[in-house]
Amino acid sequence: MVFTVYNSLTRQKEPFQSLQAGTVRMYNCGPTVYGRAHIGNMRAYLFADTLRRWLEYRGYAVQQVMNITDVGHIQADADEGEDKIEAQAKKENKDPWAISRGWTELFFKDLQALGVRPAMIYPKASDHIPEMLEMIDGLLAKGYAYQVDGDVYYEVGRFPAYGRLSGNKVEELDAGARIEVREEKRHPADFALWKSDPRHLMKWKSRFGEHGFPGWHIECSAMSRKHLGNRIDIHTGGEDNIFPHHECEIAQTEAFTGQPFANFWMHCKFLQVDGGKMSKSLGYVWNLDDIRARGFDIRALRYCLIRGHYRAPLNFTWEILKESVSALSNLDDLVVRLRNASRGMGASASAEDGLEEVSDLIAEFESGMDDDLNTPRALAALFQLRTAVLEGRLGVSAAAAALQFVLKANSVLGVIRTEEANLAAEVEALIAARQEARKRKDFKESDRIRDTLLAQGIVLEDTPQGVVWKQKG
Ligand SMILES: [Zn+2]
After folding, report:
1. What are 18-53's pLDDT values in tens digits?
2. Residue ranges for the chain with pLDDT beneath 50
């Protein structure tokens, strides 16, 4: 079986092959740490996590790097405007280093809550200034960059492949440039590698001047090269990273090393909320605490965000999240039923019954994931497996084989509850939250928590000794 992925660079599905047999070097564009990551950001990180888990399922050792942009990410994407972190620091009247530290810590907590496997390393841009300056020097020496009064720009016209990833043409970028072009640039599409600005709070001394800071794009080129080498297998990001960010990364890295940078570029589509773009002004920017505040388990959010194909638009509504809770409880139930059937409870008469169906469904799950991480297809195979066990079609051997497989499949999905102990802990936590709500007479909230549990097949009973719970059916 061949793992096929859609490569944004060639705009087609291609069989995946790594540069070095058995190892994958992967770089994921990470967050700019000036605020709380929202669930739309999380979709892209969960996509990277699913990709990594699938590669591991297929036997690769994955060297995964995700950067933390803690300096120099300018508002207007290119090289004008205010640094996002510094802008936030001014707003909160804090030191920008404290801002980026605080949000970085929270970012890791969110990833952990979502069950994301940790990357090999999360390099911070501010720890890699010498590596960036080394590349900038090299680009100047090779004639790909030029200096103007302490600023250094990349000259896109010197790199013929500029625009290959995004489909943009340098001439059209010229015509379309609406922002007032800084006269010091040779071409409007040229972008900053280094900026001099004594007012900038996060700044470094370099041969270009006393006070400077890097452009956003050079950070990823330098960190990827430092931790993964000149060439990598896969580079991922959200669809908004394609231009200018990834286009610029390619131009910098390939001009500097003289080698192709990433063989596969993979991009995740935006998450929509209530059918539209997530927008701060409409108040639709949810984060993990908003999910918790409505009584949902973060595991349900993980399911909700990975259940769609990463290249298809995915819509988020509270209604859909509720449906995810019940879909997920069916998958939890699948494990319970398979465990029982493998011990003879609810199994078909002959041990061999259903073996072929199980092996077909395993093949269907795997070929779904091999088809550019088609998670909907893979999940559908698991639901069919549930139908098979519900209808008593699986014998003891088939149920045991299916159980082994579901546990393995869950090493990729990371959402199914496979141990009864976890269930108890989660239910107890929700019951405690419900008791709290009742104490403060928030009956709406306590009813909602009861309904959430009910959707998972958990029935509560108020007794004189306290609340007891049991599983339905
Ligand atoms: Zn990046």
Report:
1. 999 999 999 999 999 988 999 999 999 999 999 999
2. 76-78, 175-176, 178
Residues 6+ apart with CB under 8 A from 92: 99
Q: Got the DSSP string for 187-213?
A: STT-EEEEEE-TT-SS-EEETTEEEEE
Superfamily of domain 18-268: HUPs (3.40.50.620)
Ligand 1 centroid – CA 193 distance (Å): 14
Domain range list for the chain: 18-268, 276-413, 420-471
In the reported structure, the alpha carbon of residue 160 is separated from the centroid of ligand 1 by a whole-number distance in angstroms of 21
For 334, the 3-state DSSP assignment is helix
The residue among 222, 262, 260 whose CA lies nearest residue 137 is: 222
- CA 44, 48, 51, 57 torsion: positive or negative? negative
At 155, list the tokens.
């000259």
State in Å: Cα 401 to ligand 1 middle: 42
* Measured torsion, CA atoms of residues 184, 189, 195, 198, in degrees rounded to the nearest 10: 60
How much distance in Å is there from the Cα of 285 to the middle of ligand 1? 22
- Collect residues with CB below 5 Å from ion ligand 1: 29, 220
pLDDT digits (tens, 9 = 90+) for 264-287: 999 999 999 988 888 767 777 899
Q: What spacing in Å lies between the alpha carbon of 358 and ligand 1's midpoint?
A: 42
Residue 280 Cα to ligand 1 midpoint, Å, equals 23
**pLDDT at site 174:** 63
Distance 12 CA to ligand 1 centre (A): 22
Whole-number Å distance, alpha carbon 223 to ligand 1 midpoint, is: 9
